[in-house]
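Sample entry (364 residues):
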Amino acid sequence: MNHAPLSPLLPAALRDPPALASLDEVGWDLLLRQAGAANLLAALYYLLEERSLLERIPAPAREQLDWARMLAQRHRQGVRAEIRLIRQALAGLHVPLILLKGAAYAAAGLPPSRGRLFSDIDILVPEDRLAEAEAALMLAGWAGTHHDAYDQRYYREWMHELPPMLHVRRESMLDVHHAILPKTAAMRPDPALLRAASVPLDGDPQLRTLAPADMVLHSAVHLFSDGEFNNGLRDLLDIHRLLTHFGTDRRFWAGLAPRANALQLERPLFYALRYSAMLLGTTVPDDVRAAVPGPSAPLLALMDSLFRRALLPEHASCGDAFSGTARFLLYLRGNWLRMPPLLLARHLFHKAFLSPRKTGPETA
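Predicted structure, serialized as tokens:
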């Protein structure tokens, strides 16, 4: 029985694109399958384009990547149009619209947006304006989901967001956040600090993104505290690209660890820096690494064993006998980080035994 990942070509390709020139058609077929599993086909196209390597790959692979590029371009155009409509819907609130994650990368034209596909748009509004925001969005055609009474309580009392909203005509998904971690989580970064440090897009004070350090920290906490890894390598690539982009300014590195401390997010940042460097070759200054505390040596060895499996594409060629177990344990860890033990036990019991009988696949 094989206990090591078999052929994780994709991380190596993202780390060292010129090495792909020696890949044969069989290797390219495997690489594209891994990229498809990781939702990174279009991102791979742009990486090769940036390095002027597209003409050096087999024609069938180039054709498939070009189709992925066209899909990503249409996706990005759709995201920008959707942002305009969300902004129009919320204009009457007279509060800045703060974009998060993929929508923020697309609107700001940041490197992670090149080829990035995502299923929903995330925004951040003050908690005391949630009801107004929800009402305004419903008037503009967005409808709430997860109508089960337990799910409604789960989101509205314990989570950091409203139940996901779906537009009745365009079928676009929208997540309205008031924080970046649940109310029940042990880590509680103050959303007021995030809003206060947000930066305007194109000089427009009403359309904003998180500040550079906060954008990295949000990406880190999303990846390393959530428990879902179906897009793990894509999200790690986001972190790599953000660090590489913002890291050209020494002031960014100088402020990153202190900001993580102020927001209680040092552990997610530690893992983000460690695995971005380990899997994607991100250059992180030694003094920044030293300033971010990590777990004890035995715990770190365990986390290395789990994350180095879970962050690979969910493809048979990237897995071993323990990959499924690693993802399951990290799923449990993610839930443990989000809820205290008694509430977590109640939630898992409800989702396992009660919700399927009542609402089927719509539950949270």
